[in-house]
Structure formats: C-alpha cells, structure tokens
Amino acid sequence: VNNRFLLVIISIVAVILVIYFGSKQMRETGEEHGLTEWRFALEEIQDSVQDAYAQRFKELIEEKTKGEITVTVYPYGTLGTSDQLTELVENGAVQFAMASPGHLGSIIPETQVFLLHYLFSNDPAVNNKLLAPDGELISFFGDLYRQRGLELLSFYQEGWMAWTSNKQLSTLDDFRGFKMRLMSSPILTALYRAYGASPTPLPYAEVYSALQLNMIDGQENPVFAIEEMSFYEVSDYMTFPYHAPFVTSAITNASFFAALSEERKQIVKETISELSHYIFEVQEKYNQERLEKIIERRPQLKISHLSEAQQNVFREASASVRDDIERFTGPRGPQALAIIDRELAKPADE
Ligand code: 6CS
Prior knowledge:
Layout: H1 2-29, E1 37-41, H2 49-64, E2 70-74, H3 82-90, E3 96-99, H4 124-130, H5 136-146, E4 150-165, E5 179-182, H6 186-194, E6 198-201, H7 207-212, E7 218-222, H8 223-228, E8 237-240, E9 245-253, H9 254-258, H10 262-297, E10 302-305, H11 308-323, H12 325-329, H13 332-345
Parallel strand pairs: 1-2, 1-3, 5-6, 5-7, 8-10
Antiparallel strand pairs: 3-9, 4-7, 4-8, 4-9
Helix pairs in contact: 2-10, 6-11
The chain binds ligand 6CS.
Ligand 6CS binds at residues 43-44, 82, 100, 102-103, 158, 183, 204, 221-222, 225, 246.
C-alpha cells in the first residue's frame, strides 16, 4: 500500500512538473509551441508615443502574418512599473515591451550613457539616424541586452525633456535643495546632484500626486507626457533646457525571438525598421499638438527656453558625471560613448 501511495505521489508531482515546464517553455519559445497571441507592455498610457508605436506594430504584424498572430497591447498601469515590465519580458510572461534607459540602470547599466546631458545633437533628425535599427549602436547594445535574456529591437526618441516645476529653473542656484523627481537610473541622481538638487527617484504613476502634495518640486519628461499625465496642472513653470531627449528601447524575450521561424523573424525586423521613421514623425506631431493644448488649458504656466549661455552652465556642471561614466556603466560604457561621439561627428550626408 505504501509503495502504491508513493507511486501516486510521484506521478502527480511528475504531471505538475511537466505542465509547469511545458507552459514555461511555451511562453518562452512562442510560435513553435503554438503561441498565437503576442503581448506588448508599455511604460506609457493609451494615446502616448509608446502606444502609437505598439498599435502600429500590432497592425503591421497582424497584417503581415495574415491574422495568424494577434498582438495585445498593455498600457502603463495594467502590468506594473517600468522595471517590472522588463522582468516580465525577461521571464517570458510578456513577449514585447518598452524599456527605457531611465529605468534600466540596474539591469543594463551601459544604457545610462543615453541619460547624459548635452550628449546628443541639437538636431533630432541626426539623433534619429544615430539610433536607427541598422546602426552600430543597435549591434553594440544588442549583445548587452542578450546577456540579460532580452533581444533589443530598436532605440527611439520621444522628444526633448522639459522641466516642470514650482519655481523658475534657469541657474544652478535655482536647483539648490530642489526636490527633483527622476527615473530610477543612478546616473540621473548623480547629474542632478552635480546641479545641487536633491534627487528623488519615483515611479511614473506617483509623479502627479507627489507634485500635487509638494513632496517634490519638479520633474522632467517630454511634452506629450506632461500633457497626458496632467503634470502641467500641478506645475507653475515649464523650462526647455535642451539637455536630453527621452530615449527608449523596444525589446523582446531573446529565447522567444530565437525560436521564431526565419520568416517570422524577418517580419518582426521589417516592421521595426518601418516603425523607425513612423515614430519619429508621431513624436514630433504629438509634442507640438500637446504643447498647444497645455498653453490653451493653462495660460498662466510660465514657459521658457534656456539660452545657449544658460545651457552652457549646465553642460559644464554635468561634465564631471560624463568623465566618471565608467563608475556607472562599467568598461563598456565608455565604448558606447565613443561610438556615439564618432557617429555624431560625421558630416550630415554620410
Ligand atoms: O518618467 C517616466 O518614468 C516615464 N516617462 C515617459 C515619457 N515614458 C515612460 C517612463 O517610464
């Protein structure tokens, strides 16, 4: 009787293990195991730039696979914070997501080079070329993402970040003791500390109420986000320092991607390449239209642009962080920086 009991227990455990590992495998390897729904998780809400990217991705993938694959888009707030979305892709529960360097510092520290101030060109079209899916940066970072079980599909910009605040921010003096909300990557803390501010990392979803309750004095984000998250309602000033565009990456689970047929891989790559041009135009349009909306809805918001001389003060104050980049990124950070500098120094038509 005892032996029979043991056998039953062993069989039950075996069935549970097979179901568990089978479904894990299926989540990770996708198509070959019959996965016909691809999940795409965003760090932003509906009608954002990331949503426009994912919705177009959905349309193109469903069209190109003749409906064999459906893509379900999960906007911010439905599956977790930015860091949690990256984890969901790492463990295969979600196939695609956006992952921004602002939140990737502890996972892929090298991505923090994108957060340096006054690194990019003043011309967003030049930056778009630098970040293009067929560019050197994608293959360089591709290896680093793969080490984390992630396949890097693309980098793209979502527009210049503006500061919104409860006081005018034009000088280093203005930042003294200023409680600045930042995304979670450590280099951002170092940059704002170099300006004399008191950096406060917080998840995106908590920024509005933190501004409203005066737990923070300001934050930075692209204009479309300032509009759709209503940050302008709880800020008196909006300043354009032209210090950094918001950069993000589109990612997928590496073993899911590796298990796709060559044809499906090609479809994904082709779609990503089409999206590079599309999203550049969308972000320009959204940022422009929503700035108009903000001005209309809150005429008392004081909007200013830092002059070149004012920008230079911040450029110089941020240089110490750039010089110390390896401390934040490890040895491959300076290599990434060298690629960026080299590409940006090339004449425009190359
Ligand atoms: O500030 C943030 O945390 C977020 N900002 C934008 C524009 N997109 C996602 C990101 O997590």
